[in-house]
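Hi F.,

I've been meaning to write this up properly since the lab meeting, where we talked about keeping a consistent format for the predictions we share between groups. The idea is simple: the sequence comes first, exactly as it goes in, then the C-alpha cells exactly as they come out, then a line or two of notes. No screenshots and no reformatting. I'm using this chain as the first example so we have something concrete to point to.
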Amino acid sequence: MKSNTITQENIKILMEIFYEKIRKDENLGSIFNNAIGTSDKQWEEHKIKIGNFWSGILLGKGDYNGQPLKKHLELPSFPKEFFEIWLKLFEESLDKIYNEEMKNVILQRAQMIASHFKNMLYQ
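Output, unedited:
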C-alpha cells in the first residue's frame, strides 16, 4: 500500500529507489558518478545528505548543511534537458512509495527546485 504521509523513513526509501535509477541512467549516471564518486560508501553518504535535504523541505527537520545550487553551478555543463530526465526518474520513484496526493506534493517541490536551478544555470 502506498503511503499517504511523508516520513523520514519513506524519504530514506525514496533516496534508495531514486539514486539506484540515477546510477543506471545513461545520461545522468556519469554526471553523478563524477560528482559523488563510484563507491557504495560515497553514494550512501550522498543519499543520507540529500535525504536530510528533503526532510528539511518536506518535514521541516533534518540536519542538511550545504549549498545545493552552488554544487550544481560547479558541475561541468550538461544539457538543460537532463533536468527533465531527473524529474521523470524522481516521479517514477515517488510513484513507488506515495499515493497520488503525496506524490504530487513532493513532485511540485521538486519541479520548483529544478526550475530554479535550471534558470540559474542557463540564464
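Notes:
Helices lie at 8-24, 29-36, 40-59, 68-73, 82-97, 100-121.
The CA atoms of residues 42 and 89 lie 21 Å apart.

If this format works for you, I'll send the rest the same way.

G.
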